[in-house]
Amino acid sequence: MAATDVFDDALSRLERIGREAGIDPDVIAALCQPKAVLTASIPVRMDAGNTRYFTAYRCRYNDARGPTKGGIRYHPDVTRLEVQALALWMTLKCAVVGIPYGGGKGGVVVEPKTLTPMELERLSRGYMRAMADFVGPETDVPAPDVYTNARIMGWMADEYETIHRCKAPAVITGKPIALGGSLGRDEATGRGAYLVIRRYAERRALDPLRTRVAVQGFGNAGYHVARLLQKDGYRIVAASDSKGAIYSEKGFDVESLHQQKNETQKLEGVYCHGSVCELVQHQRLSNEELLELDVDLLIPAALEGVIHEGNAGRIQARTIAEVANGPVEAAADEVLRERDITVLPDVLVNAGGVTVSYFEWVQNRQGLAWTLEEVRGRLEAVMNEAFDAMWEEFEGHVRTARAAAYGVALRRIEETLRAGGDRAYFAGHGGGRGGPGR
Ligand code: NAD
Q: The pTM is what?
């Protein structure tokens, strides 16, 4: 999908669901554009001596419910509009899980695998220098996303602290544990997705032992959700990375797959260069073919827009759990619904990441370090509560699980915005003389 379309697509879905859910049009209007977007050009001295310039973005989409929060993506296809779409989804996601954040996002247009570790460090520190007045523990708190990781967050936190001449670990989450990161953050997105799938399976009386799963994108989120599902007996029959997919009807051992991917990496930097395609005893497929496999559960865990009008009619899975952000385009929602395929939406399924990021921020601000058990227990409570709120709405009157999750989020945002007075208050009563009314 073209970049313009990602944001347009996100807005058209928001407007449609908002209308159907009876959300105040003023609230939807408030969510139709970002509060602020900063674009910067980051000069990076390359190892060869020349200087390259990288375009970077940071978007604070909506902060009605708290400081904006969202990852930083390093990818050659990053655009301002993609960052805006991701930031809008973050706004909804934080509201779905009921944490006191608004939505933000960032990105750099770069193919990070071509950079050396020192070039990558200079780029990351340059990003923070460009954004240092735009982000902050009380305003906008970045985190990792595609092709960024804990080490990069550590560099950025250090750069922010150098600029502001103070320790401020709460400026960024997903840091290394030694620099104030939280236990459990690395697995949080996958674990959150696993908790959602587990609760859904309970509600639908699905048997894990009879459930065949395909995972597109065997990165941080994809690996952890596959690992946890396999522990419960789910059969992981397909997995992929950017280079292609593998399929085995017998199923893969997720830990071996993970180990293989790590072992084949060249230790040239902080990125995994290995490919799951290098494993033996499997059938090779393209990423597109993986999506259309005859499986029970399909987990897109890579990039947005992979399921669209063109292939939605060929999806055979009965359930799709959106671990990636925006993997299903708005036009495909209706096709999948008509075909009775349940889509568990990104704003719920992958919210475990931002939830544990929130825990990290809370710990940093309080000077505490929770145990892994405490983090996992709190995450489970948050995810279960969010799932139940979505499910209650879904079973009530709403057409799709996505509309149910959006309904929960939009009503929470509506409540916050209305606390300052709504249209009826200003036009009907409060605008006249005679005091503030009730
Ligand atoms: P990651 O960089 O760890 O992994 C991404 C994976 O996707 C890699 O295995 C990569 O090879 C693969 N990939 C890249 N392009 C692909 C393509 N065209 N087809 C198939 N696979 C491809 O990233 P991640 O953190 O696991 O993020 C994955 C998705 O989850 C993204 O949509 C991200 O926004 C979303 N997400 C991540 C987090 C988090 O905390 N990491 C939180 C919420 C949502």
A: 0.93
